[in-house]
Amino acid sequence: MNKLKKSFFTRLTGLLLVAGFFYSCSTTQPSVDQLLNNKNYQQALTSINNQLAEDPAQPDLYIQKAKIHAILARDNDPEVRAEYYESAVESFNAAGDYQPTTRQQNQIDSLRQQYWKFEHNLGLQASENEELDEHFQRATIHFQNALILQSDAVSTYKSLAITQFKMGELDVAIATYRRALSASDNPPPQLYENLGYLYLEKGDPEQAAYYYELANKSLENDLNTAFGLINAYVSNGNHTEAVEILKPLVEENPDNAGLRNVYGTQLYEITEIVIGDLKAAYRAQDSALVSQLRFEAEGTGEQAEQQLIEAFRRDTANVNYLESLAVFYNNLSAQYLSLQKVVFSEDLPEIRSKAYTLIDFAIDYYEKLSDANPDNEQYQAKLSTLENLKAQNSASPNN
């Protein structure tokens, strides 16, 4: 009996020793922190995954996992960081699924911001470093990496789109801005303004105007947006809309010669449209409409003339403003000459006189242009044409 008890006790002791042996071994396994300190990242990931398989509701482990993926990203070239950052984001999102504490959530937000800022700033540095080979391409890679970490980072979208535009990738830059709009709950006005600019560059004034209008800025206080929208309207032939913006801007900025010059040219465009309607009214023998349209054409033409003169008066050294006046008088004289074929006979002398008065002004300003640019053959040719017209009028028996 005692022999049996002794045998059983011995076996029990043996089992306890074995259990103790295994317990002792388990405590000597390195912790995740130890593995990280030793840069054993893959082993650390394996350890974390094993622990999460047993109990997935551990936000801290997901945060550690995200950290490891971020470290691996930085240890690799920018071109191959995307997959590591994507894994980091997946880990952050998984941590968020298990009701993290305020401390844990703050840590998640802080780390994402830190990793995003790292890539975003590298993108800015690369885009400005002209000594770096293919610096724009390198910058776009960093910006795209940053957007993996913060998909709603408007500043990164803007920087990426600007870099793409500088690379000549206009459509790609537009697509980037449109992504920024989709990613932002409250897009800043500059996104719409920049899209408007890019669509103008693309030659799509209708879309440009659409986005400039969405910017919804006070045009009197933001001349960049105002000019962009005006350019969009002008390019799309929406001269009335352009004038509606230009009028208050000129009143607010009376000494801005550039504004006055554009305002004057747009008023001329409207004058030309009115004269086109006037021709149709003459052909239709509509006397009442003729009177109305003649008055409108005279009034709008005079406004255009006044604005162009005021622009040149404020900057007489600017040849562009001088040329605007020369072209204005030349084109408006041509419009009145074209009316001669359709006007009522009683209106012909006045219309003819108006046309040749405008020709005299055109000659005067083209002479000024020729004096300022004696080698410009186009000015000389235009001046010769106008002088021939004047001579023909002087020789005409109806004069």
Low-pLDDT windows of residues: 3-28
**Share of residues in strands:** under 5%
Secondary structure: helix percent: over 70%
Annotation, overall tally of beta strands: 0
Biggest sheet features: none
The average pLDDT value, as a whole number, equals 90
Specify the structural class. mainly alpha
Protein name: Tetratricopeptide repeat-containing protein
Signal peptide: 1-24
Organism: Gracilimonas mengyeensis
InterPro entries: CellSynth/LPSAsmb/PSIAsmb (IPR051012), TPR-like_helical_dom_sf (IPR011990), TPR_rpt (IPR019734)
Structure described in brief:
The chain is mainly alpha-helical and 399 residues long. Helices cover 80% and strands 0% of the residues.
Plain-language structure description:
The chain is mostly helical and 399 residues long. It has three domains: 36-151, no CATH class; 165-235, Serine Threonine Protein Phosphatase 5, Tetratricopeptide repeat; 238-356, no CATH class. It has helices at 2-27, 32-37, 41-54, 59-74, 82-96, 102-128, 135-149, 154-166, 170-183, 189-202, 205-215, 223-235, 239-252, 257-283, 287-314, 319-339, 348-372, 377-395. α16 (319-339) runs antiparallel to α17. It starts with a helix and ends with a helix. Residues 3-28 have low confidence and may be disordered. Residues 1-24 form the signal peptide.
